[in-house]
Amino acid sequence: MGDPSDVSLTPEERVRALTKKGSSVEVSDDVPPRRYFRSGMELIRMAHVYTEEGNIEHAFILYNKYITLFIEKLPKHREYKTANIPEKKDTLKKLKDIAFPQAEILKKALLKRFELEYSNYLLKKKEEEEALVQEQSRQRALDAERVRVADMLRRQREQEQFSAFEEMIRRQDLEKERHKVLLEFATPSDLCMYMCVADKKCLHSDPCDRSKAVWRA
User: Fold this and answer.
1) Which of 21, 75, 118, 184 has its CA 20 to 30 A from that of 135?
2) Could you tell me the pTM of the whole model?
C-alpha cells in the first residue's frame, strides 16, 4: 500500500491508500456488538470534528472505518443477528445520511487537492530534470574545455621542445659552416688563434708565438 502523503502518487492512488487505511477494522466475537455501536458514535463525532478543522484526510479515514465496521465487519459477529441493540436503527440512518455522503464529498475534495499537489510535483520534477540536463551539459562542456586546454598545452610544450632542438641543430650547422670557411680561407695565424680560442687553453696575448705562449695543463 502506498503512502497517502506521497505526492509522487497519482490522486487516485492516494485516495485508494486512504480508503485502505479506513478499511483496516477488526471485530472480535469476544466484544459485545453493542460496544461497537457505541464506538461508532465516537467515530462519527470525531470525523465531524476533523472535517470542521480541515483535516479531511483523517475525517475521510474515520468515515470509511465507520462504513467498514457496520457494513462489512460487524454483521459477521456471531451475536449480531440475535442481540437486541437499540442503536442499530440509528446507525443505519447515520450510514445513509452522514457516513456515505460525507465520505463521497471528502473524496472529491481530496482528489481535487491531490490533483493540484500532483501537478506541482510533476512541474517541480520537470524543472529538476531540466536543471540536471543543463548541469550535465555544462559539466560536459567543462570537461571538453579541460581536455582542449590540456591538449593545447601539450602541443605547445612539444613545439617548444622541437623549436629548441631545431635551434640547437641550426647552431651546430652554423658552427660547422664557420669552421669549414675558416679552414678554407684563413691564414695560419688565424687558424692558430681560432684553435686556441676554441680550446680555451692558451693564456698569452699572442698565442701563436710559441716562444711566449703559455698553455693550460
Assistant:
1) 118
2) 0.65
